[in-house]
Design brief:
Blueprint (H helix, E strand, L loop, with lengths): L1 H13 L8 E8 L3 H14 L3 E8 L1 H10 L4 E4 L5 H6 L3 E16 L6 E2 L1 H8 L16 E4 L5 H10 L1 E7 L5 E7 L10 E3 L3 H10 L3 E6 H9 L4 E6 L6 H5 L6 E9 L4 H11 L1 H9 L9
Parallel strand pairs: 1-2, 1-3, 5-11, 6-9, 6-10
Antiparallel strand pairs: 3-12, 4-10, 4-11, 4-12, 7-8, 8-9
Helix pairs in contact: 10-11
Length: 293
């Protein structure tokens, strides 16, 4: 009996361990945050092969709705929740992922090095010309984003602008803008780019165009020698320091989003992303890390 028990014990020890059950983390989040989560998910899955991710980017409102409905386990927003969203989705919880600045980007040949809020309002309402800025003839071509894009929402909010989407005879969409409190929207349409890369490509192709994008993206393109430049806003030069100390006005925070307090695999992934490994990914993705506890 002793020998039989010993053989059974040895046999049990030699059996292969059962693989950990597969865990899927489904994500739908803002266009700005999705690439960070995608990169973070790949790094996390390399350390935890039992975890897989499904990544879909979307607008912030769509992310809020999907997480609140339980359609996905994890979302992301490129802004704080609005008061009405907190009432509508009381179970949502935000975990700070990183900081970001939104910068004004123009072609390197654009005649300004800095711009004011009033001048930007004139650009997006179609009343500014290159001659106003010391350049040649022709308009300043404003480039926007789809209506629900959180970066544009912040941009217009800080600048005191409102916008609506209009559809042309050819079915194409554009924006009409007005300053807050104005009775009518300006008649000059603002072109809609599909995303930040598309917008910057239009800047490179048109010396008279102007747009906005995340600070890290712009700095990375300048460092690579792309023919663009970043304008100071109201005398404030955008930088990591001016974003963190609050002196640069176009700044925001990006958050991960869960229904209820994050637990289980999702909670462990959020801990990874807000810790040293995840914040190294944030830095590599050209966003501004948060302090690691």
């Amino acid at each position: 009996m002793r020998l039989s028990g010993f053989v059974f014990l040895v046999s049990a020890l030699l059996l292969p361990l059962a693989p950990a059950a597969e865990q899927v983390i489904s994500f739908r989040g803002s266009l700005s945050a999705a690439p960070i989560v995608d990169a973070g998910g790949k790094a996390y899955a390399a350390l935890h092969p039992e975890v897989t991710f499904t990544i879909n980017d979307s607008s912030t409102p769509a992310s809020l709705k999907a997480v609140a409905a339980g359609d996905v386990a994890l979302g992301a927003t490129a802004r704080e929740l609005k008061a009405e969203e907190r009432v509508q989705y009381p179970d949502l919880r935000l975990s700070l992922l990183c900081h970001d600045g939104v910068v004004i980007v123009v072609n390197k040949a654009f005649p300004l090095e800095g711009i004011t809020t009033k001048q930007l309002q004139d650009v997006y309402t179609g009343t500014a010309t290159l001659k106003n800025f010391g350049g040649g003839d022709g308009p300043v071509v404003a480039i926007g984003r789809p209506e629900a894009q959180a970066t544009q929402e912040l941009f217009f909010q800080i600048l005191g602008l409102e916008a609506k989407v209009v559809v042309g005879d050819d079915g194409g969409k554009s924006l009409l803008c007005r300053t807050k409190g104005a009775a009518d929207f300006a008649p000059t349409p603002v072109a809609i780019a599909s995303g930040h890369k598309d917008a910057v490509a239009r800047i490179i192709a048109n010396p008279g165009a102007l747009t906005f994008c995340p600070i890290g993206m712009a700095q990375g393109l300048v460092a690579k020698g792309q023919p663009i430049k970043v304008l100071a806003l109201d005398g404030k030069v955008p930088s990591e320091a001016s974003v963190l100390d609050g002196s640069y006005p176009l700044r925001r925070k990006l958050f991960l989003l869960t229904k209820g307090e994050p637990t289980g695999p999702v909670g462990e992934f959020i801990a990874f992303m807000t810790g040293s490994p995840g914040q190294a990914i944030v830095k590599k993705m050209e966003f501004i890390p948060i302090p690691v506890k």
